[in-house]
Write a structure and sequence with these properties.
The chain contains eleven helices and 15 strands. It is an alpha+beta fold. The strands form five sheets. Strands 5, 6, 7, 10, 11, 12 and 13 form a seven-stranded mixed β-sheet that branches. It has a two-stranded antiparallel ribbon with strand order 1-4. Strand 2 and strand 3 form a beta hairpin.
Amino acid sequence: VLTRRDDYFMRQGKQVRDRPHFKEVRFRIIADPTVALLALKKGEIDELELAPEQWQNQTNDDAFYERSTKAFGVEWVYFYFGWNCKTPFFSDARVRRAMSYAFNHDEMLSKLRFGLNEPSIGIFHAESPWAPQPLPEPYKQDLDKAESLLDEAGWKDTDGDGVRDKMIDGQRVKFEFSIVTFNLPDRVAVCNLLKENLDRIGVICHVRPMEFTVLQEKSRKHEFHAMLAGWGTGSDPDSSDNLWVTGEGRNFGQYSNPEVDRLFIEGRKEFDLERRRAIYGKIATILWEDQPYTWLYVRNSFFGFSKQLRGYNFSPRGPYNYGPGFGSIWKAKKK
């Protein structure tokens, strides 16, 4: 429960900020997406972020529109497979690029995301002023290219068992790893598609869904081989330095590139807008070449709202971030 406090918008008897319309906001944790949608339809909750299948197939009938409506906006949030670069599997950029070529991006976008999302092309949305020019081409599945890159990196099936392997520190290591993700059906489905794709080129992938708090803990401790997750863009590209700079706190995949480290320092000190754009565009280009992530798709904001809620506006971070954000939302009285 969040409760409005006067000292947020009042100081020394004067109002210094807009007063939030709500005195209290209650959060309900509903793990099952089907149960959550039913709660919205019954009027038990006022807002719900919809999964693509819910948006496309489960919110078009009179039962939904009796109490609710839905709205969407473009959101600069990208989802990715993150590769732990300190593991023997993903320390080589050729292997990471092979993962990106092995994955069936078109099937994910058309069948699992219902054609509602666009492919991600890296750390910046294509419409962002910080995006590199020219824009990179999204990856497409190319199993021959993936196998060639794995061969170059030394991952070959040397014992004829159908699984690639490599000699590491005097021992033969099979290319068998796990990918972790939040236990939501749509995210597990994307990981299962990766598993199916990699099986075709002699790589074994185990999908490990888990609760979000457990996923966060494993991420912070770098206790994973690979992970499916997402990031939203900040108001300034410098805010993402802790994702990519060596040793930074949110650099869960332990990526390290001295040139990227140097460019983030340079970008922070540069005041000329066009020079800053060039610096961050170069960072984006290097990251795209190194593929510490396999960038998957840009998530749009799909929300269901009670018809009593009014005033929501969408920004590149959804209806609650950046101005006016939550402050513009209010609730009409029941007639």
